[in-house]
Amino acid sequence: MQHAAAELAAYLEAMSGAQVPVVVEDVFAGTTRIDVGPTTVARAAQSEEARGHPESVTIRSTDDGVVICGGSDRGTLFGVYRLLEQVLGCRWLAPGHEYVPSRETVSVPAISHESVPAFDLRTFSCRDPEHMVWGLKVGLNGFYTAEAANENGGCYYSTDDMPFTHTWHKIIPHAKYAEEHPEWFPLLDGKRVPSRLHNAQLCVTADGLAEEFAKNVVAAFDADPACRIASISPNDGYGWCECDACEALDERLCGKRTTQQGLAKARRFRGDRVFWFANEVARRVAKKHPDKLLLMLAYVNYAEPPDTVRPLPNVVPWLCHYAPADYSRPISDPSSEPNRQFNELLTAWAEICPHLLFYAYVSKSMWWELPRPVLRPFAADVKHLHALGLSRYYAQSSLSHWALDGPLYYVLAKLLWEPALEPQDVAQDWIDHMFGPAAPDMAAFYRAVDDAVRKTGQSYSDNPRRDVPGLYHRPDLDRAREALDRAATATGDATISERIQEAADTFLYGYHMIQCFEAVDLLREGKGRDAVREAKAFGQKALRYRKVRKAQDFVEALPSYANLGGVMTRGFGPPEERGGRRCWNSDETGPGDDKSGWAAFYVDVPDPSRPVTLEMDVWGESRLASIVVHNGAGKWNGVRPRSRLSGEPTWETLVFAIPPELMAGDKAFQEIGFGGGDSQVWVAAIRAAPAAE
Questions:
Q1: pLDDT at 542
Q2: Hey, what domains does the chain have and what are their CATH numbers?
Q3: Average pLDDT over residues 365-373
Q4: How far apart are CA 599 and CA 570, in angstroms?
Q5: What's the rounded Cα separation, in Å, for the pair 275 and 21?
Q6: Which of 258, 386, 392, 584 has the CB geometry, 3.0–4.6 Å to 266, for a possible disulfide?
Q7: Is it true that the peptide bond before 371 is cis, omega within 30 degrees of 0?
């Protein structure tokens, strides 16, 4: 309560210079009062309904001032921020960016406001202190930290022992339990392997596992009674136990059926198994902590609702909008086949479990910080979730990229409190306050980026290398760039200029990486040398604006013409000299370091319907038994040389005969690879020609 009053006083002083004393109710002696929290006056102004909801907000005028009161300390804090924003004009635009108007006199007009948020759980991945502060001001209530709970009125947070998302390997660590209970860990290919973050789960049917798992969860809640929520979700990926008991459990619960819900191939369905185990744990935890919530991801091959198991009330399914997903359209748009499928899944979950938590990929980490206009579809998704009766929303976003995502964070925060708001009006309000006199040009910028995807009508999901080519309408990207140029000259305010520059640098990185991907796509189509040269040039230009790690790795790995007689290559190390010849090692990590090395090259084959003779000048001590030829459809075909290397320190020529049926028949450039492991292969030249008749 004192924190809420102190925040109000601080902003009133920032607006007007006036210092407003903060005192307890019993010693107030002034004439105009602002009651913050459940004072006698404030309680009288609250409705019975508002008193019963911890996040209710009541703001009402009285004869001698105004009251701001919530159903709890957290509600009161939200009430202070809503008064400052909706009545006095403050804006919290993004972490580190706010708008506070200057006023000679601060006055509050007659007001009678009472509200509760539409969504009970409203959270981003915001555990950075600055991000948590911003989240509170726009009405988010998790996932914060225990240290911040006193100031934020007890918002949701996780403990260090049970972080959010994938936790089986944390709650039952292999190092602690393997010696005494090896049977608790998954049987894979006939061996018990350690549970780990990726692709190794637990043996959920093992005797004593559920008891120990629940005991550790209870202990974490005992150690931190204020913590109200924890994840008990499987590790990332697959690696499901194959023991007879676990297989029999699947058979009994769902008949060992498969699922291909957004997956590249059909996999065994594990939804009944994971929620059966969640219930086993939840029953035990509820004996000591009946009010705690246990999150269980619904993800990959356990995304569909279980066939027979129904989650207990303290088990919160955490449904990931991961796959199938089309982020260029709302989930409810039936014209998108991926979204039609996901909407069926979402609707089925909502019918059996309306207390589920929705997992939205708001800042998709694998999208490489490219322009990803998702404000319209994500806003529509919030409204759709609300219409389905759902009220818990998690955004996978660290709130670190406002310059990329524009008003998206702000709009989502507002809609989670009040879904009926018009998203474009909220976005325009953000643009006006973020960019001041440059707002018209910045509005044109965001509109053009959005139009660039809407005009092509192309879907995109989680793979920019696959999805970017053809996704953006180039004239609209150019319009966006022109709008940024205009915005840069529309203001003399240093803060606004810095914001525009940050948005411009982020966009220009994306603008040129899009060109890079489009050029690489031409290479895949067999367009050849100019395409790869352009791809490298565009990628290098993009990286001058932003150093995005995935983009750096991608650009560095692009084929190069710098060596091996003009053949395009990738994955080779720096030039070396052996036997008087300049050469390149397929293992770019270096000889003898036990790290994997893989190299590839592209050869120009004018007529892929004819056999090709490939010659490689290879140092005789190299470890090369075969090459593999890509058929253009995901398959690599092995080809051995006519004669093997001698193993002697001398240059030799390996000759490979490649029949047309092994090649990509529609490509002028054929991709050929070799290596793997610590494979030291030194190559001085590569030549390819049609085989002699």
A1: 98
A2: 2-117 (3.30.379.10), 441-556 (no CATH), 564-690 (2.60.120.260)
A3: 88
A4: 6
A5: 53
A6: 258
A7: no
